[in-house]
Amino acid sequence: MTNAPEKAPDVEEGIEYWNNQPANYDGVLGGFGTGSLPRIESLGSRLFLLGLYPELSTVPSAYKPLREPEHFLRVRALDVGAGVGRVTSDTLLPLVSDVVLLEPVEIFVQEAATRARASAAGSTSTGAEERSHWPGLQGGSKSVTVLQGTLQEFDPLNPHRTHFIDRIGYQPARPADDIGLGYDIIWCQWCLGHLSDEDLVAFFVRCQAALKPQRRSLIVVKENLCSDLPDSKPLTIFDDQDSSLTRSDLAWKVLFKQAGLKIVREKVQEGLPEGLYTVKMYVLGLSLTNGKFTDWFMTGMRCDDYICLFENPRKQMEMQ
Ligand SMILES: C[S@@+](CC[C@H](N)C(=O)[O-])C[C@H]1O[C@@H](n2cnc3c(N)ncnc32)[C@H](O)[C@@H]1O
Hints:
Layout (H helix, E strand, L loop, with lengths): L10 H9 L5 H4 L8 H16 L23 E5 L5 H7 L5 E6 L2 H15 L22 E6 L14 E7 L15 E5 L7 H13 L8 E9 L9 E4 L4 E5 H10 L2 E8 L9 E9 L4 H9 L3 H9 L1 H7 L1
Parallel strand pairs: 1-2, 1-5, 2-3, 5-6, 6-8
Antiparallel strand pairs: 3-4, 6-10, 7-8, 9-10
Helix pairs in contact: 3-4, 9-10
The chain binds S-adenosylmethionine.
């Protein structure tokens, strides 16, 4: 086996595959939607996020800073290849204020919008067998914006090539106020295999431009890993079934580097059923212009410093 995959992913074939899966957790999780996997997986992601952003903790805990910020700043996240909105509802919305969800497949994106609207209306029954709760939509303290499109076409800062489906929950004073604002967290889970190496690097470059420059903004990649080749060389395998690529740890790292991204933290997701690929979370920041920024995560900061940064962008600039 060599590193070069025998084929590149075909966008239409990938969409066709997902179009024939049920629009529920089982469908997006390859039949693992009704067991322990979704709960363990999203718990792992939330704990991982809290380790990066202790100030997002909603309950008293060792993570939560003692001093609350005086001015609440909204935290924005992007969830790409979002399926029926599982990561948005179970991982991101419990912690952040606003999520933009991108998904190309019609049945999935409509199901995500239906679930979000049902939650906003106070009903968690959507007709699907599982009931998802989307925190903060009922009452309008949080929002979800649902977009339809592929990662190949999507530019997070200029989303005009995607189709707007709905915005549910909190509405800014002027509807277009947060387009172009950028993101604190860009979450990419179990979908980047649908991009060729070239398209993936280009997507990462567009993501970097969409990270909020004066905040501790990061990209999270949570994906399956195949093993590296025995001589510690990267490996990428093409999967005919859904026209996607599975990459080894080193294959991911080569691409992060090509895109100018620095690994801030990496962690294997524990507790998943046996027989599945290893799943790893990588946190990525800008490696050149924002090097000191990512160093903060690696060296650790006092909680008070976190609060000051969220409250006071000038202090943040001074620290850079
Ligand atoms: C394994 S599911 C994961 C869904 C979701 N991230 C989750 O963890 O629940 C893969 C998702 O990638 C989406 N996808 C396929 N091709 C894509 C593309 N070209 N651009 C963006 N997403 C794509 C599929 O429609 C599907 O929703």
